[in-house]
């Protein structure tokens, strides 16, 4: 009926392994296909190709949390992608399982509080009981899993673009090796119709320098239009995965007022963060930018009024009050207003944003704060403030800008017209 990814760090933990085995067996009996990586991933190695594919395509997931899992960077990445897909609206069932004596406080302390883990029992139940409690939840998994999944759609689009390069198998293999795809998967690049999806899945999480080099290898085998589309799709992949997910509102309801604080210096950086978070989904997300001025005697009121005018004009093409009527489907889309402050916002700035949210309770405001971040007392004055982490350096931004310029210039470089 569906593919179920099981995230775990059970190796060396007999109890966790027993739970893992019984859940896998139970899923198979119910007609599901469990996706389980039994091999340990040594520190410093790239994420396994199979795991990337599984977390990006699965229909449901079980996250087994023991002490090792809470400390595992791999489990953290798996959880991040799963919750990223959910935040984008994917019909994805995610079931967290606390093993042993772990508490929800332990999960929160490990930075995985978004799982909202449920402790199935305060005592240490047998593995069969835990597995049965998990398997009961799969009655919630519908036969029809159709629904919007921008991450999977983005990967599918990339795979389609890369089909052009299949005629040059050597370049495909070189690009795959640059992306550190395991040798065992290389024959599939040209041997299967969906072989290029291997590259596309890896591009989801590839370090930006490897992504750029891989695209440079493939470019001579691609048309100018395809290169441009790939470059546009990949330009924002330099943004940290966890920071990108934090850009999205919580799943399960209409958009709500949020203030995102990004210590960015260049204005295009904020757009990259939203593109990375939404996978360039123009149907469900809309982004507009404005400045932080004016600054007169009424520092709060003037700012709020200027931003109110900007919202009406930029999002709804309503410059005069007579045209200012919100469409009935305003809550069906998520609206981001990027305000380029370029310095640490003060309390007046925060109060002006609060007035703006009083008018537009569904608006997400992304503020670029320059090289600094607002003081804690200022952050408290924003509605649902999120400080995007890890913090940026100007060098990281400048490197991304130059890399994106080179990607955009690839067709001209190949033809010698650059």
Describe the structure.
The chain has helices spanning 14-29, 49-57, 67-71, 73-87, 104-109, 127-136, 150-162, 169-178, 188-191, 196-205, 208-218, 224-234, 241-246, 267-278, 299-316, 347-359, 376-379, 394-408, 410-415, and strands at 3-7, 33-36, 60-65, 93-98, 258-262, 285-291, 334-340, 363-368, 385-387. It starts with a strand and ends with a helix. With 418 residues, the protein is α/β, with parallel strands linked by helices. The chain contains 19 helices and nine strands.
Throw out a few tags for this protein:
418 residues; Rossmann fold; TIR_dom; TIR domain-containing protein; alpha/beta; 46% helix; five-stranded parallel beta sheet; four-stranded parallel beta sheet; 19 helices; single chain
Please give the structural blueprint:
Elements: E1 3-7, H1 14-29, E2 33-36, H2 49-57, E3 60-65, H3 67-71, H4 73-87, E4 93-98, H5 104-109, H6 127-136, H7 150-162, H8 169-178, H9 188-191, H10 196-205, H11 208-218, H12 224-234, H13 241-246, E5 258-262, H14 267-278, E6 285-291, H15 299-316, E7 334-340, H16 347-359, E8 363-368, H17 376-379, E9 385-387, H18 394-408, H19 410-415
Parallel strand pairs: 1-2, 1-3, 3-4, 5-8, 5-9, 6-7, 7-8
Helix pairs in contact: 1-6, 2-4, 2-10, 7-10, 7-12, 8-11, 15-16
